[in-house]
């Protein structure tokens, strides 16, 4: 289970780099899962597509994922890093990437010993739910930002769990260096 949690930290960043529809909120669903060195190595390397990600477990409640990307404006490489929170709502796991004041929320699903699948939202469903007033939110550049309390977010996700997340925006991340304890 912890291997699954650890891997998911990187997949979320991978998904942010693709054209998938994202769901953002000031809150993350459920409770934060604590990660210890007894469960995971403090550092590992993962691959998604052509990109390599480095994951660092700084302490039991702080995980950071980083990668190197080319900056056309400066003609130099730059390191991108974001904190991630692994959370659990009932029996469902989520990976939440914090960028500025919002968490990007992704659903985690195991996919073997060294891989997991990360699911993004069904943008059409969220759009319809916002239009119908089921959930308060707005369209952003690549997805939707929900404007609600943590309690409302969790209620919305629980009642729509089987239809909210889409296989169309799924991705698989593979461990290439490091060991799970």
Describe it:
With 181 residues, the chain is of the alpha+beta class. The protein has a domain of 122 residues: Lipocalin (Beta Barrel). The chain has 3 helices and 12 strands; from the N terminus they run αβββββββββαββαβ. Strands 3-4-5-6-7-8-9-12 form an 8-stranded antiparallel barrel. The protein is globular and about 45 Å long. The termini are close together. 35% of the residues are buried.
The run of helices and strands is: HEEEEEEEEEHEEHE
CATH topology of the domain at 2-19 and 30-121 and 166-177: Lipocalin
Secondary structure category = alpha+beta
Mean pLDDT: 82
The neighbouring-strand order within the major sheet is 3-4-5-6-7-8-9-12
Helix content estimate: 10-25%
CATH architecture of the domain at 2-19 and 30-121 and 166-177: Beta Barrel
Low-pLDDT stretches are: 1-19
Strand tally is: 12
Question: What can be said about this structure in brief?
Answer:
The chain has a domain at 2-19 and 30-121 and 166-177: Beta Barrel (Lipocalin), CATH 2.40.128. It is built from 3 helices and 12 strands.
Key phrases:
about 180 residues; alpha+beta; eight-stranded antiparallel barrel; 12 strands; about 50% strand; disordered N terminus
Layout: helices, strands, pairs:
Layout: H1 2-16, E1 22-25, E2 31-32, E3 43-48, E4 51-59, E5 62-71, E6 76-89, E7 92-99, E8 102-110, E9 115-121, H2 123-131, E10 137-139, E11 143-146, H3 150-164, E12 165-177
Parallel strand pairs: 1-11
Antiparallel strand pairs: 1-8, 2-6, 3-4, 3-12, 4-5, 5-6, 6-7, 7-8, 8-9, 9-12, 10-11
């Amino acid at each position: 289970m912890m291997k699954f949690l650890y891997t998911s930290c990187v997949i979320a960043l991978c998904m942010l780099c693709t054209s998938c529809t994202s769901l953002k909120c000031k809150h993350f669903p459920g409770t934060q899962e604590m990660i210890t060195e007894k469960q995971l190595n403090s550092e590992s390397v993962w691959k998604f597509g052509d990109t390599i990600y480095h994951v660092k477990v700084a302490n039991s409640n702080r995980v950071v994922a980083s990668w190197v990307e080319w900056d056309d404006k400066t003609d130099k490489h730059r390191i991108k890093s974001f904190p991630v929170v692994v959370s659990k709502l009932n029996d469902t796991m989520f990976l939440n990437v914090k960028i500025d004041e919002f968490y990007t929320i992704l659903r985690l699903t195991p996919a073997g010993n060294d891989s997991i699948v990360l699911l993004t939202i069904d943008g059409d469903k969220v759009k319809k739910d916002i239009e119908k007033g089921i959930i308060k939110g707005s369209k952003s550049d690549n997805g939707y930002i929900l404007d609600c309390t943590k309690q409302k977010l969790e209620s919305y996700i629980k009642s729509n769990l089987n239809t909210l997340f889409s296989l169309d925006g799924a991705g698989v991340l593979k461990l290439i260096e490091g060991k799970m304890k």
